[in-house]
Amino acid sequence: MKKSKKWIIGIIVLLVIVGIGWLSFGHKSESQNEKVVKVGLMSGSKADDEIWNSVAKTAKDKYHIKLQFVHFTDYTQPNAALTQHSVDINAFQHYAFLNDWNKKHHTDIKSIGNTVISPIRLYSNKYKNVKQIPNGSQIVIPNDATNESRSLIVLKDAGLLKLKDTKNGLLTVGDIKDNPKKLDIKEVDASQTPRLLNDSAAAVVNTNYALTAHLSSKKSIFVEPTNKQSKPWINLIATNKDDENKKEYKDVVKAYQTNKTADLIKKNYGDLELPAWNRKFN
Fold first, then answer.
1. Measured between alpha carbons, how far is 105 from 2 in angstroms, rounded to an integer?
2. Which DSSP string corresponds to 74-142?
3. Which of 31-45, 196-210, 242-256 has the lowest mean pLDDT?
4. CA 155, 158, 162, 165: dihedral to nearest 10 degrees?
5. Domains along the chain?
6. Which is nearest to 204 in space by CA: 177, 236, 233?
7. How far is CA 184 from CA 87, 156, 202, 217, in A?
8. Contacting residues for 212 by C-beta, under 8 A, at least 6 apart
9. How confident is the model at residue 28 (pLDDT cuts 50, 70, 90)?
10. Quick one: which of 186, 192, 235, 188 has its CA closest to 213?
11. Parallel/antiparallel/unpaired status of strands 89-94 and 35-42
């Protein structure tokens, strides 16, 4: 074998060894520097997945954080998983839900950043505006504590009810002060509200259930205003109190609160969901 060929073969072998070494050690070192954060989410739509996949890319590219998503099907699961340290942070609830959860379960889960607000709407298959609703009509609202309270405020803002001034926290139908149209307020599971539209004058429907039921926003006859009363309904990213100052968790919030995320929310949801981190609630 000629000397020149031996040199060429030697160089190739050396390059192969260097390449293997970089793949084995360089990539491993890069991977070791990457922090993993487990995020608890409700099983959502393709739109939700697109938004969170974008956040994951930003977290990885800008903050060297790898997001691992853990999906749940029941609203009682993400906070329980958080207190059991099965996830590091979660993003599925608003402040009213969180405060109620902490009170009932004696936990200390904290918000570390706002995400979106989803104004709920009063829908009707029969009427074009609130004033057309006849006396004695049935109005359907969700029966869980936070959404019942929220729905009653919506009916009040729509001019259908007057509510007592109460400092007891969440409102119930017992806090109705004046019901001039003698409306029959029917409380049902939130998931059932869209199905009862044909049997009632109107129904307050949460955004997620309106989307699931393919309920057109054209059927909406009143939209919850976004003002200082809306603050309890702002959605958030949460973690346990002991972890609320962890840099990597705060960096995930930064990865979420971007113009890119806001654009994706607008693209996928229009005005059904609104970015809450850059909005004033006066």
1. 80
2. STTHHHHHHHTTSSSEEEEEEHHHHHHHHHHHT--EEEEEEEEE---EEE-SS-SSGGGPPTT-EEEEE
3. 31-45
4. 80
5. 35-119+231-275 (3.40.190.10), 121-224 (3.40.190.10)
6. 233
7. 42, 14, 11, 24
8. 194
9. very low
10. 192
11. parallel
Which pair of tokens denotes residue 102? 């902490």
The angle formed by the CA atoms of residues 72, 53 and 111, to the nearest 5 degrees, is 60
User: Which amino acid is located at 185 in the chain?
Assistant: I
The answer to whether 207 touches 118, Cβ cutoff 8 Å, is yes
pTM for this model (two decimals): 0.80
Q: How many residues does the chain have?
A: 282
Which of 87, 73, 115 has the alpha carbon at shortest distance from 239?
Answer: 87
Amino acid at 75: Y
Q: CA nearest 207: which of 163, 150, 160?
A: 150
